[in-house]
What we know:
This protein is mostly beta strands. The chain contains 1 helix and 9 strands. Strands 1-2-3-4-5-8-9 form a 7-stranded antiparallel beta sheet. A two-stranded antiparallel sheet has the order 6-7.
Amino acid sequence: SREVGLYAVISEAFRAPTANEMTALGPVPSGAYLKPVRAKSAEIGGKVEPAEGLSLKAAAFRTDVLDEIYFDPTAGAFGQNVNVPKTRRLGVEWGLKAARGIWGGYLNHAFTRATFESRVTLSGAPFPAQQQVEPGDNLPMSPRHRFAAGLAAKPGKGWTLSMNGGCAGRQRLVGDEANE
């Protein structure tokens, strides 16, 4: 209906390594034979519009990735792309949107847990150290929380004045895949 909507999605994806991924940081092949990336995803969500100009949406998702191509920055002379056997993204998202008259606004939040799901040895700092990544370790550069908010006014036809902001929570940096 117009006021309530539900959905469920199950999907699979396949992606062959690109030429850039196979050569890492230059024209010389990295020596790594990369496998294609495969992913399986499931998502369920919905929206509700309890009143005109007010809507709430929410979704939960899970994506399992096999042979994810991951850049190991200190491997070899210039870094090297490697396949990580298993990773996972698991999370929930929600959003609230409201509009009345010339005013409108939104608030969104996403919680994502992005983890390695297999044991893998990667390079670590200081070079040439190694780090042992265990299942459950967080993927770098994947904040657990992301927030976004905005406010807009439409003072006349064809005009919109808006202010938007966003922030991301703490996250591991590349080079700390073992979460030390």
